[in-house]
Specification:
The structure is a single chain. The chain contains 17 helices and 13 strands. Strands 3-11-8-2-7-5-6 form a 7-stranded mixed sheet, with helices on both faces. The chain has a two-stranded antiparallel sheet with strand order 1-13. Strands 4-12 form a two-stranded parallel ribbon. With 493 residues, it is an alpha/beta fold. It folds into 2 domains: 2-189, no CATH class; 203-492, Alkaline Phosphatase, subunit A, CATH 3.40.720. Bound molecules: zinc ion. Zinc ion binds next to loops.
């Protein structure tokens, strides 16, 4: 009898929470899944499971906010509308909540902010407010305190599920709404994770007329380049440009956050130091104009290093690799052309999205040479061959992109070097492994390429010869910093 009375008392409470969670899925958490390409029922089912897991953890936090009337009225309402204003842009434009976006929200000039406040946005918020008022009224009618202990216990379990999931696989939930907002804020306010030297040795450069275009690639394994002997001719244009390929470069850092800081500083793979020197600080000290042109959003692991450039130009800074509407790397090309005109002594970096998963978002349709390609983001439902086909199409696009950069370099008046290195490789089904951030050998052998203009070869014979001769040697990514310094003719005074 007692149990029955108890169940009856909390029935209303349960309906309230189910309805509230459904609304939060529709208005907030669902936005993180809306653009995910999925093929067929099984994929949809898996992603619904993912969303269910996410919402279960959110429900844990939400429950605590419903315990007291005024907490619910004020704190819950404020958070709900705050997250709704992000989810609107996640639904409509597939933006990613990154530290860069948080910076824009907190620091952007009011006139730009006003541009974002459109009629549909206000309409979305208006509907959200109406729904909220309905729930505030409903919440008022929930008088019973029965079941509080039990529900609190369950909600703590749900919250624990969040931390357990994140421990098992980082960013499973954190990269999605509403958690990515907290993540972005934390990263925005957080101290730089990488300690940089500010005291630099006195350095000088050999010439006032030299351009280095350094291209930081993404997820390109050396053995899928035709130029390195891959059985598909994925690099026809680069072969024509007589690019030098270093096919035996290795790194133990197989994800961007760890590899990028190592590549563009004097950090080595084997020895840790207190602080490191950014190649850009060194180039600045030697008198170069340094410019970072990036298609990737800045992560806290490397933002402070990027900011040692004199100029930072991010082309699509509100969409990260998680966005399915991310711009293609070619949007950086006109920016490069205009930067090239500004000075005769430059170190310009292009930071690509490259071949980062989801591959189908990384190249133009006219590069879809290898088919069939993947049609779902759910890896178990696509074949290994489809993965390889899509990936190889991204390499064809890379071939095009680098060729365009070289063509721009040819038009440049000063001696010019184009230096490309990928941050790490990628697994494409070897031993059942996919993507990166592991230890498989396909992930540890990134592509590295070099091209010199004729005027560079004439003017810097020694550098050209020394570096070109190392092409068949076994190297590590430690060499990138050294080569950049050598190509830039930077020497201690
Ligand atoms: Zn990467």
């Amino acid at each position: 009898m007692q149990i029955r009375a108890f169940v009856h008392a909390i029935k209303g409470l349960i309906s309230f929470h189910i309805a509230l969670n459904v609304v939060v899925v529709l208005f907030i958490t669902g936005a993180s899944y809306y653009h995910t390409p999925l093929e067929g029922g099984k994929d949809t089912f898996v992603y619904l499971g993912h969303l269910f897991l996410l919402q279960t953890t959110v429900a844990g936090f939400m429950y605590l906010l419903t315990l007291y009337k005024w907490v619910f009225r004020i704190a819950f309402s404020a958070l709900f509308l705050f997250f709704c204003s992000f989810s609107f842009f996640a639904y409509t434009q597939d933006i990613s909540v990154t530290p860069g976006l948080i910076q824009a929200v907190f620091e952007t000039a009011p006139d730009i902010a006003i541009d974002l406040i459109t009629l549909p946005f206000l309409g979305f918020l208006f509907v959200a407010i109406l729904v909220l008022l309905f729930f505030i009224k409903w919440h008022n009618r929930l008088s019973s305190r029965k079941g509080v202990a039990l529900f609190t216990l369950i909600s703590i379990g749900c919250i624990a599920l969040f931390f357990i999931t994140e421990m098992k696989r980082l960013n499973t939930l954190k990269s999605r709404l509403p958690y990515n907002v907290f993540n972005g804020i934390e990263d925005y306010y957080g101290a730089p994770k990488f300690r940089l030297n500010t005291m630099l040795p006195k350095v000088t450069k050999q010439t006032d007329s030299l351009t280095i275009i350094f291209i930081l690639g993404e997820t390109v394994r050396a053995d899928h380049l035709g130029i390195n002997g891959y059985d598909r001719n994925t690099t026809p244009l680069l072969e024509e440009q007589q690019v030098i390929s270093f096919s035996k470069v290795y790194t133990s850092n197989t994800y961007t956050a760890s590899s990028l800081p190592q590549i563009v500083t004097d950090k080595t793979l084997d020895v840790d130091k207190e602080s490191y020197t950014s190649i850009y600080s060194l180039a600045n000290a030697a008198g170069y104009e340094t410019t970072w042109i990036g298609n990737q959003t800045l992560e806290s692991s490397f933002a402070s290093i990027v900011e040692t450039n004199k100029n930072v130009l991010l082309v699509d800074k509100y969409k990260s690799e998680y966005s399915f509407n991310k711009e293609l790397d070619e949007v950086m090309l006109p920016v490069l052309d205009s930067v090239l005109k500004t000075s005769h002594s430059q170190l310009i970096t292009l930071h690509m999205m490259g071949s980062h998963w989801y591959y189908e978002n990384r190249y133009r349709e006219d590069f879809r040479k290898y088919t069939p390609v993947i049609t779902s983001k759910y890896i178990p439902s696509v074949t290994k061959q489809e993965m390889i086909n899509s990936y190889d199409n991204t390499i064809l696009y890379l071939d095009y992109f680098l060729n365009e950069v070289i063509e721009s370099a040819k038009k440049n008046e000063t001696p010019t070097a184009v230096f490309y290195v990928s941050d790490h490789g990628e697994s494409l089904g070897e031993n059942g492994q996919f993507l990166h951030a592991g230890e498989a050998k396909e992930q540890t052998n990134p592509a590295m390429l070099l091209w010199f203009s004729d005027s560079f070869k004439d003017r810097f014979e020694e550098q050209t010869k020394n570096i070109s001769e190392a092409r068949n040697k076994r190297l590590t990514t430690n060499i990138v910093y050294e080569y950049l310094r050598e190509i830039a003719t930077i020497k201690r005074q």
